[in-house]
Amino acid sequence: MERFSNISMAVVRRLPKYYRYLEELLNNDIKRVSSQELSKITGFTASQIRQDLNCFGGFGQQGYGYNAEELHKEIGKILGLDRLYKTVIIGAGNLGHAIANYSNFDKSGFKTMGIFDVNEKVIGGKLKDIEIMHMDKLEDFVKDNSITIGIICTPKAYSQEAADLLIKGGVEGIWNFAPVDLKVPDHVIVENVNLSESLFTVSYLLKEREESNNKKK
Amino acid sequence: MERFSNISMAVVRRLPKYYRYLEELLNNDIKRVSSQELSKITGFTASQIRQDLNCFGGFGQQGYGYNAEELHKEIGKILGLDRLYKTVIIGAGNLGHAIANYSNFDKSGFKTMGIFDVNEKVIGGKLKDIEIMHMDKLEDFVKDNSITIGIICTPKAYSQEAADLLIKGGVEGIWNFAPVDLKVPDHVIVENVNLSESLFTVSYLLKEREESNNKKK
DNA sequence: TAGATTGTTAATCGATTAACAATC
DNA sequence: TAGATTGTTAATCGATTAACAATC
After folding, report:
1. How much is the average pLDDT of A7-20?
2. Domain of A119: which CATH number?
């Protein structure tokens, strides 16, 4: 995946966190926040927070701090959350269901337009008013409905095929839950969520902790 | 979360990837692999791969490379995959179902012993031979069955409560899918999977790409 | 004006890459 | 032995932290 700016991914991955913390502040009717206060909440250093934000512009005011509402809105814009993204889900299993039912994505502008599977038993059914179609129809559906993001929730074996169809249909981004490194052209954005890798980190840390405890004895 | 060794998290998060790539090599009957070949497959530099592996010991042989099977096994041990982990899932919604049904975790030594919810409609039912119980019983169940990992698949609002019960019951690690920073004692390991943060990265990158394209015109 | 806090430059720290001697 | 490739040290690069002048 090619990158198009010199903002580091480390910064990019902190942006959704800032966004979430600011939302929380707004929910608690807090209007104003300094980098120092944000530091306490987020665990990042105040210095880092100011550096991060200044990658995108000077959103604060000396002597005052940041206006929580304004900063929240600005970060939303930076994250591209001021737009609508049409998505399709491939794989109508439990994970596909979970994603389709997660209403927070809708709220943030991600709209599921279709769900695809190869299992004849589920095809023709509906999931939250969204039709489940055969994977044969994926490419045309993506084309006809200007889908921008494909969400791959298939088993490993179908994931590359799904990606190929999505790309032929013209999606710009893929959110991939299959434990596979998809082969995609340079201009297509892929974000992987690899649950095994995440779980294995837990077992690693448990083992590390245990070993360290043993040494102390 | 306290750390117990000086291995950096950057290294730790690459280990599951090495493990997965080696598995693939083994499936293709490849017995031997050099850091250079691994570099081609993984996208990491050969130098980085050798550095990473040497954090844990010298698994290779000069002039030969690494024995794929042995290295796979060793990394498995490092990740703590040579053990059995008893887990519980809290939240029997779609995501809980997806996790419970994901057979790969079983294969890696993670065994779901119980599922918990507050919805009377699902309590008493079974999911893949695993009983769905009321969250009231969570703490005792964790204690009585020596559960080591709790998997939180509840809505945001229940996640801290679930974490508290798990910790009172004595779990050592929490795999958290709720978009919340759980408050836990220092010795408890928490691994967050925040789907919104992941999805927002996609929209960020789409927007970044578009802006860069606009500039070129 | 005085106090507070940003925006930004400089210093530090840590992670990645390069290089090469050791050795199979 | 000659060739290949590791293990490991040194050099580089990038990200984080510290410091402080600018300014509200």
Report:
1. 98
2. 3.40.50.720
